[in-house]
Amino acid sequence: MSSDEMQNVAELLVPQEVYMLSGIHIGTEAEVKAMREFVYKVRDDGIHIFDLKKIDERIRLAGKMLSRYDPSGILAVATSRFAYTPVQRFGQFTGATSFIQRFTPGLLTNPNLPGYMEPQVILLSNTEGGAQVVAEAALAGIPLVALCDSNSPVEYVDLVIPMNNRSRRSLALAYWLMARQVLRERGQIGARDDLPVPVEDFEVTQEEGEQ
């Protein structure tokens, strides 16, 4: 490994092998043009592979961005079963509001609707299943951070986090890292401190994922 490669690995939030084992870098066979800048290569089988350094950079940016908001103003929305536990754990550690129910149209745009919310920023687990959230965030002018795969729509997304948003391991790692970064940016833990729980605590169990 060259000195430059060693430097890049050393700068990552977690060791390269941790990222690799989670599968966070493995995209889909499809690609939307806006996601091309985050792709490192396309494998022979057509699977798009994300650049780990760009994933890492965007997770850092998300942590910095979200840390600037009041915790109660952050709405973390899960749109797939594998995101339920990661989103809930993220909320527990950062103070963000976790939303894992079915998203009723109008929750962000209709003040007369029961459960109406006025978040300052939204963190969305994927745009494929969260089209209604994306549309209402755009209408309400709410900044949107989203975990986007190689085939994810990115229109109206203010901060794209390129990653495998379909796997329980990759989702657990992403939310664990974002929670850690938010707390580091707020000064609630040290710049090199970890969360008091391992990544596995953010991972949905097989039984939960099958419910």
Which blocks of ≥5 consecutive residues have pLDDT under 50?
Answer: 1-9
**Rg (CA only):** 17 Å
Strand order of the largest sheet: 4-3-5-6-7
Mean pLDDT: 93
Instruction: Provide the succession of SSEs.
Output: HHEEHEHEEHEEHH
Largest sheet properties: 5 strands, parallel
Instruction: Return the structural class.
Output: alpha/beta
Number of helices: 7
What is the percentage of strand-forming residues?
Answer: 5-15%
Helical amount: 25-40%
Regarding quaternary structure, what we see is single chain
β-strand number: 7
Shape: globular
Measure the end-to-end span.
44 Å
Descriptive overview:
The chain is of the alpha/beta class. It has helices at 3-10, 16-22, 52-67, 81-94, 131-140, 168-186, 206-210, and strands spanning 39-42, 48-50, 74-77, 97-99, 121-124, 144-148, 159-162. The strands form two sheets. Strands 4-3-5-6-7 form a five-stranded parallel β-sheet, sandwiched between helices. A two-stranded antiparallel sheet has the order 1-2. Helix 3 packs across helix 6 (168-186). The longest helix has 19 residues, at 168-186. The model is unreliable at 1-9 (pLDDT under 50).
Detail the topology: elements first, then pairings.
Layout: H1 3-10, H2 16-22, E1 39-42, E2 48-50, H3 52-67, E3 74-77, H4 81-94, E4 97-99, E5 121-124, H5 131-140, E6 144-148, E7 159-162, H6 168-186, H7 206-210
